[in-house]
Specification:
The chain has 147 residues and is an all-alpha fold. It has 8 helices and no strands.
Length: 147
């Protein structure tokens, strides 16, 4: 894992303590982080070197979440989880019955911003995808796969 990836992991996990103080369990944090990182990784797959179509509908994707401010991120995140849970294929499986457990909009926004700092355009390549050694060129399925 690159230094940039290590830094992102440390920042994301350090935020777990802040949310735990608000009553969010480790399991709940991991669940929310999984949803957010799925969206982030799906967005990364639309950029070089992959340039794949996004499996996530526009308006319910990573950019739609990162562009929100104030109380809106929490409201949009709830709507996003509900909408994606109704989709067919992989999206529906991943997001079925998903619920937002991060009730404080400011803390949700902070977590989104921390995850967004893994943007491959800013970190010199790899981004959040690199955190998980996700490499479709090595035969691993893409995020859009329904297999």
């Amino acid at each position: 894992m690159t230094n940039d990836a290590n830094c992102i992991v440390k920042k994301l996990w350090s935020y777990c303590n802040v949310l735990r103080d608000d009553g969010l369990s480790y399991g709940d944090y991991l669940e929310q982080l999984t949803y957010l990182l799925f969206l982030k990784m799906a967005d990364e797959q639309t950029k070089p070197p992959w340039r794949r179509p996004s499996p996530v509908p526009e308006g319910y994707d990573w950019p739609s979440l990162t562009s929100r401010d104030g109380a809106d991120p929490e409201l949009h995140y709830r709507a996003l989880l509900l909408h994606l849970g109704k989709q067919h294929g992989l999206l529906g499986l991943v997001f079925r019955k998903a619920q937002n457990k991060i009730q404080d909009p400011a803390k949700l926004k902070r977590l989104v911003v921390r995850a967004d700092r893994g943007d491959p355009r800013r970190s010199g390549g790899g981004g959040v995808t690199a955190l998980f050694s996700f490499n479709p060129k090595q035969g691993r399925p893409s995020l859009g796969s329904t297999r």
